[in-house]
Design brief:
The chain is an all-alpha fold. The protein is 88% helix and 0% strand. The protein has three helices and no strands. Helix 2 (43-63) runs antiparallel to helix 3 (68-82). The longest helix is centred in the first third of the chain and has 37 residues, at 5-41. The chain is elongated, with a radius of gyration of 17 Å.
Length: 83
């Protein structure tokens, strides 16, 4: 456990950021799963959901939740599935 006042504050801030990052990552993963599921049933709606997945992936990369190359790789993989 943190002892100093600054360490306590750093812990609070870290936990807040973790919560935001986790929700951003979860949103991205949910969008990707939705695209993968739709590819199996309906390609047309999967194409529409692909844009939302791209947006979620780009936001996660922009905020530093995932790295730039990881975002690029994930976008390429789901695009390959849709085509």
């Amino acid at each position: 456990m943190p002892i100093t006042k600054s360490a306590k504050k750093a812990l609070r801030v870290s936990l807040r950021k973790k919560k935001v990052n986790d929700s951003r990552k979860k949103m991205m993963q949910d969008q990707m799963k939705k695209v993968v599921k739709l590819v199996k049933t309906d390609k047309k709606s999967a194409q529409n959901e692909l844009a939302k997945a791209y947006q979620a992936i780009d936001k996660a990369a922009k905020r530093g939740v995932i790295k730039k190359n990881t975002a690029s790789r994930r976008k390429a993989r789901i695009a390959k599935l849709v085509k």
